[in-house]
Design brief:
The protein is α/β, with parallel strands linked by helices and about 400 residues long. It has two domains: about 190 residues, Rossmann fold; about 190 residues, 3-Layer(aba) Sandwich (Rossmann fold). Helix content is about 45%, strand content about 15%. The chain contains 17 helices and 13 strands. The chain has a seven-stranded parallel β-sheet with strand order 3-2-1-4-5-6-7. It has a six-stranded parallel β-sheet with strand order 10-9-8-11-12-13, with helices on both faces. Strand 6, helix 8 and strand 7 form a beta-alpha-beta unit. Helix 5 crosses helix 6, helix 6 crosses helix 7 and helix 14 packs across helix 16. The longest helix is centred in the last third of the chain and has 18 residues. It is globular, with a radius of gyration of 21 Å.
């Protein structure tokens, strides 16, 4: 049994953190999660019976952004070194440090200067210019090449981005997110009763609404504004649920802009912004079609898998890791990123052919349950952990 110290710089419930929660559950008896800030993930881990601790960290670490210049990175260095010493002290009783984020890896890599431990870098991000500055990419790849025992990519697309940024190919392993699909299947079976109870729109005798669901944190690159543009071009019985909230302060303004956009496009009665919700799979099962609208390439596409697991047809962008999940025209539909017109046409095509939409949804559900279940992830993770000890 390998004792693992998972490290994450944030406790917000993003896709990477939900993946961490799943992995920690697999190793609940032999792991601890070290968080460098407090937040919802802390309570979620406690509720699951997972050992978790919030460590004191420097403000400098949290002030470094993805697009920073080298001067900002150098300015934060002394604080990051102090954080590395904190991680080294915490890791003394563990066999492996599993760094779950970009910042967590930087701190964990430097911690080996003070207490040598194998470090796994779990890469949930595409290392390209649309997501990270040049110096940010080069810095983390240099540390990975020198300090990481292995680099775990969440998709082949993410792995390719690591190599393209100068990363060593022989460090790489691919570990797709794994899911426990019981809730999704139960939600799909009960969706008719659930949909009736939602009562999000007043049924005033008009034709049945066709509900499009978009589930993601609210930030410009996730493309909620693309859905609103598409919806404005569709007939009035098409409506949308937008589920999610801004996780970071810099995205708060985007939430206001989305509300203003809905108002200016005359969509106020056709869109419901539900904010952060715990009952995501239940809400997905109530939609007629689910969409994924990221304008930048997605490293993996966790929400795509979740949506497909409910048996609903999925329309997603043809970029990043998403084509590794969806086979176009067989298990879902792929459209170019940022193309509201293509999105609208795909949704309307599904609405016009319910039998085909149902077939597509069923094929997608079968595919993701087979490929992305938590048992497969557990087997792959065990192989990676064995590799860290050779």
């Amino acid at each position: 049994m390998v004792n693992i110290l998972f490290v994450d710089h944030t406790a917000n419930l993003g896709g990477g953190e939900l993946c961490l929660l799943d992995l920690a559950l697999l190793h609940r008896s032999s792991c601890r999660v070290a968080l460098l800030t407090d937040g919802p993930l802390y309570k979620r881990l406690l509720d699951c019976g997972i050992s978790v601790k919030v460590l004191k960290s420097s403000p400098a670490l949290h002030q470094v952004r993805k697009k920073v210049k080298i001067s900002a990175i150098l300015k934060a260095l002394s604080g990051v070194i102090a954080d590395a010493q904190t991680i080294a002290a915490e890791a003394k009783d563990y066999d492996v440090i599993w760094a779950n984020t970009h910042k967590a890896f930087v701190v964990s890599a430097l911690s080996t200067i003070f207490s040598p431990k194998p470090v796994v870098y779990h890469l949930h991000d595409l290392l390209d210019s649309s997501h990270f500055s040049f110096w940010n990419r080069k810095g983390v790849v240099m540390l990975a090449n020198y300090f990481a025992r292995c680099v775990v990519a969440n998709s082949q697309a993410t792995a390719r981005s690591f190599i393209a940024s100068g990363g060593k190919k022989d460090l790489l392993h691919t570990l797709y997110n794994g899911f426990e699909f019981g809730t999704a299947l139960k939600s799909a079976a009960e969706c008719d009763a659930r949909q009736a109870s939602l009562n999000l729109w007043q049924e005033d005798g008009q034709e049945k609404r066709f509900v499009i669901g978009l589930f993601s944190r609210l930030t410009p690159w996730k493309g909620q504004h693309i859905l609103l543009e598409a919806l404005a071009s569709l007939p009035s019985h098409f409506c949308a649920l937008v589920v999610g909230d801004a996780l970071f302060p810099e995205d708060k303004d985007y939430v206001s802009r989305l509300c203003q956009q809905a108002e200016s496009l005359g969509l106020k009665e056709r869109v419901r912004f539900l904010g952060f919700r715990e009952d995501v799979w239940e809400l997905m099962a109530c939609c007629d079609v689910l969409v994924h609208c990221s304008v930048l390439a997605e490293p993996f596409g966790r929400v795509v898998v979740e949506g497909m697991a409910t048996g609903k047809p999925m329309v997603a962008v043809n970029a990043g890791g998403v084509p590794e999940i969806i086979e176009d025209q067989r298990t879902g539909l792929l459209v170019p990123p940022g193309d509201a017109s293509a999105l609208a046409k795909a949704v309307q095509k599904l609405e016009s052919d319910p039998a085909w939409a149902k077939k597509l949804g069923e094929a997608g559900q079968k595919a993701v349950i087979s490929r992305f279940n938590l048992q497969e992830t557990a087997l792959c993770m065990d192989q990676i952990l064995r590799a860290t000890r050779t």
